[in-house]
Amino acid sequence: MKNMPRLTWFGHSAFMIELMGKVMLVDPWLTHALSPIRPSDLEKVDYIIITHDHGDHMGDVLEIMKRHRKAKVISIFEIANYIGEALREPNRTIGGNIGGPIYVDDLEIVLTPAYHSSARGSPTGVVIMSKEGTVYHAGDTGIFAEMSFIGELYKPSVALLPIGGHFTMGIREAIKATELIKPQYVIPMHYNTFPVIRADPYKFKKLVEEKVPGVKVVILKPGESFEF
Ligand SMILES: [Zn+2]
Predict the structure, then answer these.
(1) How far is ligand 1, taken at its centre, from the CA of residue 58, in Å?
(2) What is the pLDDT of residues 173-203, one digit of tens each?
(3) How far is CA 126 from the centre of its chain?
(4) Are 190 and 164 in contact (CB under 8 A)?
(5) Do residues 203 and 195 lie in contact, with contact meaning Cβ atoms separated by under 8 Å?
(6) Scanning 13, 182, 218, 220, which has its CA 20 to 30 A from the CA of 206?
(7) What kind of architecture, by CATH, is found in domain 6-220?
(8) Distance of CA 193 from the midpoint of ligand 1 (Å)
């Protein structure tokens, strides 16, 4: 039986994505109040993608890299350098930049723009493409018109979009983003981890399904998986 591509949400922006037999973590902050697991619970990690260097996204990357000796970080050049130096293992990072396809194993990974801030390098989102399916993780961002290019060029099966407001898009902006990207599925993220980013994912779901026909919104609880 063929493996279905699968993703698992650990709350906030932390996802485990299983594609083409590889296990990728995006923004692995696993020590927040809603996370169902701790870094020591992870069994297999091949790649860790970091969208920007804020603590709620870099999260527990150093600990996970120490526990999983074969794991590699993929991120914007400056963050990759920082992690390589912190671990004294520069060969365990792959630094790229926005818009340039990165090929690893049977995956094609593209860092995308994000309207946000970051101390090291530019903030990004990421598209992970494969024969089994394509996932777009928007990182932390406000809405921007070029999201329509992400939809056109990469045709994501699943888009992971922040809806919590204050630091990122809120529900209104994330609905417009969904309209621009037109993925098959949208999964909301970056909400309800702390009070200033409180948002109702069911309101988001109802409005998307009214305004953007053909897109399904999947609401996960921390720890839940989705096959696509
Ligand atoms: Zn954040």
Answers:
(1) 10
(2) 999 999 999 999 999 999 999 999 999 999 9
(3) 7
(4) yes
(5) no
(6) 13
(7) 4-Layer Sandwich (3.60)
(8) 10
